[in-house]
Amino acid sequence: MAVMMQAFYWDAPIQENKEGQWWNFLAGKAPELAASGFNALWLPPICKAALARSPGYDPYDYFDLGDFDQKGSIKTLYGNRAELENLIRTLHANNIGAYADMVINHNSGADEEEVNPLDNQKRWTKFSPKSGKFPRDWNCFHPSRYERVIIEGENYAGYPHLCHRNPRVYEAMFEYARMIIEEIGFDGFRFDFAKGFGAWMIGLLAKYRYERDGKEVVPFVVGEYWSGPNDIEGWLDRVRAVTDNQIAAFDFPLRYKLKDMCDTLQYDLRNLTADGSVVAKRPFNAVTFVENHDMRDKEIINDKTLAYSFILMNEGYPCVFWHDYYNLGLARPNSPNGLDALIDAHHRYAGGDALILHADPDLYILERGGFEGQRGCIYVLNNLGDKWSGTSVKTRWQNQKFKPVAWDGHDIAHPDERTTDGDGNAEFPAPPRGYAVYAPA
């Protein structure tokens, strides 16, 4: 099992006084992140944006990675190409992968307005980037001669919306993806605002035969399709129809369940057992998360470690948010009460089948059966705010001692060890408004 980190938050270099130095800053953190158990970092957009201090979600020049004097700066908010390449080398030296944030539909910062002859509307669609690569005009955007009837995807914030069916656009996006994997050294893609373009485009970029150092590279691919479970499932089906690669989606439906669990009084934990999330139906296609850079006005306020315990003990590919880990201090190294302990438990124990042993409005108990080197575990989630709670459940282990390896809540007293009887039964409690993870001793 693996754990990803979103290695930035909105305006992170500005907030942390690291403008133009984020790539160098992350390189310095690589040994620490590896020791904490992170297997991959999702990095922010790498190219020059419309504004000097932009986080990058308004791309202007896809092939300027911080080396051309344009849009008010030479470096991007995060650094330049040489620093980015050094970061990727450093991550790889510490056995950490890197995923690039792909913003391939909406553009900004055009140099001139033009009239689109198809609808006689004037728009900012004339781009003359100093890299000299991918200059574009109105016919690279919607509406375009290359799409007579259907305009694929939703528009974003009124930005010019790339038409991927234009061969110039199609070729530029392929070249951009090829550069990211083969030259810069990334290991995968996170596609921003996947609603904004056809699923076929992700499928084709995913299945291209990338090569690096004489070896084929199959990128990890995850899409941000911010919608409900049925829409995400439909999108995954559309992508799967054009590639046999494994494609993942961020589990937004689960994230909103987790917010309700943390911030809603008397939340019924049985909601966590129901359908309505990506991980419940397609665990191998789910990237689970608690927060991201877009949740600034939708963040979880209370008992956030409950949500992290759920994604780190359950199936799916969990993603930890930099701001939660570092700025909110939830890592809590050298303690059983933080994310570091949960990440360690995830790697050591939380493998194999996930089986819900008990669920009622206030108590949820999950068994992970174990897989290869992971021995399995029992995860207990207690929604009661005033007392420890647990119940006897039947596990797959007979006469087995269990030790608590991670726990947190409104009372962080050390849980007792537990031992199953000859039929595999034992009672497993968790702290008030808290969780506990028990592993075979």
TrEMBL record:
Residues 2-346 form the Glycosyl hydrolase family 13 catalytic domain. GO terms for biological process: carbohydrate metabolic process. Residues 408-421 have a biased composition (Basic and acidic residues). The keyword Metal-binding applies. The keyword Calcium applies. Its cofactor is Ca(2+). Ca(2+) 3 binds at D362. Keywords: Calcium, Carbohydrate metabolism, Glycosidase, Hydrolase, Metal-binding. Ca(2+) 1 binds at N105. Gene3D superfamilies: Glycosidases, Golgi alpha-mannosidase II. It comes from the Bacteria. One of its GO terms (molecular function) is hydrolase activity, hydrolyzing O-glycosyl compounds. Pfam families: Alpha-amy_C_pro (PF09154), Alpha-amylase (PF00128). Residues 408-433 are annotated as: Disordered. The active site is at D192 (nucleophile), E224 (proton donor). PANTHER family: ALPHA-AMYLASE (PTHR43447). Belongs to the glycosyl hydrolase 13 family. This is Alpha-amylase. It comes from Edaphobacter acidisoli. The lineage of its organism: Bacteria, Pseudomonadati, Acidobacteriota, Terriglobia, Terriglobales.
